Amino acid sequence: xxxxxxxxxxxxxxxxxxxxxxxxxxxxxxxxxxxxxxxxxxxxxxxxxxxxxxxxxxxxxxxxxxxxxxxxxxxxxxxxxxxxxxxxxxxxxxxxxxxxxxxxxxxxxxxxxxxxxxxxxxxxxxxxxxxxxxxxxxxxxxxxxxxxxxxxxxxxxxxxxxxxxxxxxxxxxxxxxxxxxxxxxxxxxxxxxxxxxxxxxxxxxxxxxxxxxxxxxxxxxxxxxxxxxxxxxxxxxxxxxxxxxxxxxxxxxxxxxxxxxxxxxxxxxxxxxxxxxxxxxxxxxxxxxxxxxxxxxxxxxxxxxxxxxxxxxxxxxxxxxxxxxxxxxxxxxxxxxxxxxxxxxxxxxxxxxxxxxxxxxxxxxxxxxxxxxxxxxxxxxxxxxxxxxxxxxxxxxxxxxxxxxxxxxxxxxx
Length: 414
What we know:
Largest sheet: 9 strands, mixed
Oligomer: single chain
Structural class: alpha+beta
Radius of gyration: 23 Å
Distance between the termini: 24 Å
Number of strands: 21
Shape: globular
């Protein structure tokens, strides 16, 4: 059963929230962060991307960069840009995109639940990325940025969310990307107790986004437990920062592929090869969007095509084999284009659906890429089924939007 707790959040005073809050560390590079933080000493990028305080080109993994994160985190607190709450709270964090709002509960999740599989994952992690975030958590003694969780819908928790959010929000702002962010503090002791109890009834929580942050937080927690002579399991380092959303609130958007060459084939030869495994319909020059599961949109040679796998080309009883990302990876990328490792092959790139299918067409028309493939989004049910069966999704399968804004609240490990 899931073990969660409230915590004394470290967060900006209301008047500073828009200056402090930032996009997550892993959705932009150092130069983009430098540009976004320009002229804003309160930007969280000075803590989560501290290489921006050095000369351009500074290695973000240099020890002095991690030291700078610690220095900046301390400075933010000394200057009153980040202030710790005086008692334990849960928090409600809501995001609005395209007129739709999703509501999550900010929790301290248990490290041992992650290790023991109560918190389920659906992606593999890369050790180098884990190491980077682990160092960041360790030196700051805090989870600066949250992990994105999902949980099965729960009436009691939904009722608490409804009651808390009926009141005035602590933070309420629209970020530069146009997404709305809303944040409430849960003050009522009965509600706090009920949140803890309801999560304890859940057999599993699910990582939606933030696998590397979860793994890094768990490694630091276990390291601290091993080095503590008085370890009890209740210390703050046994927990890490997460925002947990009811599964029905979340929407996964498409995660698409662009490829640099056709493996020596002409567009006509490529299409002929595809017709062996797919029903191909020419949709012309107007952008075509996949209509349903097991329907793909292909852009090649200046035209869009609808692709539907022929009967018997995939296994509906296999939670991985039934995924569109698996079907396309096996029948198109591997069998025709010779791309076998999506993580390392330089011939392929990935484009989040938030950028629109026009971005796929632009990259092909520019000559940078020769082919684009758009996929129908994975469902939350598919994600949870895969996690429940202990399977791992292929790389670059899910894209969640909007991303959690960083800097609304921080969890300290002491």
